[in-house]
Amino acid sequence: MLLRDKFGRYITDLRISITDRCNYKCVYCRTGNEGALYGDLPFADYLRMARVLVALGITKIRLTGGEPLLRKGVIDFVRELSQLRRPNGSGNSADVLDIALTTNGHLLADLAQPLKSAGLSRVTVSMDAVDPDRFTRITRVPGGFDHVLAGIRAARRAGLWPLKVNCVLMRGFNEDQIIPFGMFAREEGVIVRFIEFMPLEEERTWSPATVVTLDEILSRMAEYRPLVEIPHARSETARRYRFDDGIGEIGIIAPVSHPFCGHCSRIRITSDGKIRTCLFSVWDHDLHAQMQRGASDEELAEFIQGVVLKKEERHHIGEPDFVPASRTMVHIGG
Ligand code: SF4
After folding, report:
1. Which residues contact 220 (CB under 8 A, 6 or more apart)?
2. Pocket flag, ligand 1, residue 260 (CB < 6 Å)
């Protein structure tokens, strides 16, 4: 039985936030002083949730946070996840899950190889400037830039591929980093993806004026070098482009100016075990409470299928009826 919502979308991508603690204070995310609010669960609980969801058709699992590498035991958890197999398979590599992780990269240099050996397929590093001073102004953590660069290079050596670097663009903060990031993608051999700023920060300061849109990013990058669009799967969040000489690839995730909800294949589990059917959900569904009351795996599967039937059709960013999400990004996990 596969997971399908009432709009006919198959849910195949699961994001698990394994902590809402973070060692960075990025200005577009942790604008306030909330800190960790919800806490986290034993890995055994996330593993059981993942096992039930894989049996329902999940093929990709992404670990997020807060900052997931702050959790001791994350390597063993990746190893356990990598043992899970997709149902009805013949037991060969086709049944292996695609396991990814999103990190701010600060702790990645020492963990990249052990994560790869444990079964991690790929990693995405959040990095919003290639200028060290600007990087510090955005993250509000001195000395972080060198750590992150070392982490990216260690991930490449470990063979975590494709290696993506996500940059959230905010007008007035880092739109001048577009071309330097194009150069960075070519020099470091990583895929740089620009993300339009979304209203998920703590103090709700977002406005349409702060968004650097897809069209703007493309026209700026074209001042540096022509781009060629790469065909991409409909459920992919990023539009992909290669530079005309074939060296270097960028992506643009444009949920505000070019929403992609029509092909959304994602659900999320928060660090405290709640299901969120959309990044902009205004409510949670308490899967962990079902486990605590002694539900069987079959009952958990039924609960999850019921929740997926309530999945939102799309977000309403910038519309008169837009209601802010009930949690901010650091407490959802992207
Ligand atoms: S906003 Fe919600 S529905 Fe749209 S792509 Fe994101 S998670 Fe999916």
Report:
1. 175, 178, 179
2. yes
- CA dihedral (231, 2, 299, 89) positive or negative: negative
**Ligand 1: residue whose CA is nearest its atom 7:** 278
Model confidence pLDDT, tens digit, residues 156-210: 999 999 999 999 999 999 999 999 999 999 999 999 999 999 999 887 779 999 9
Q: How far apart are CA 207 and CA 198, in angstroms?
A: 9
280 lines ligand 1 (CB under 6 A): yes
The residue type found at 276 is R
- pTM > 0.85: yes
- Amino acid type, 239: R
pLDDT beyond 70 at 247: yes
The chain-wide mean pLDDT, for the chain, equals 93
Domains and CATH numbers, the chain: 13-331 (3.20.20.70)
Best of 196, 235, 261, 319 for a ligand 1 pocket test (most atoms within 8 Å of beta carbon) = 261
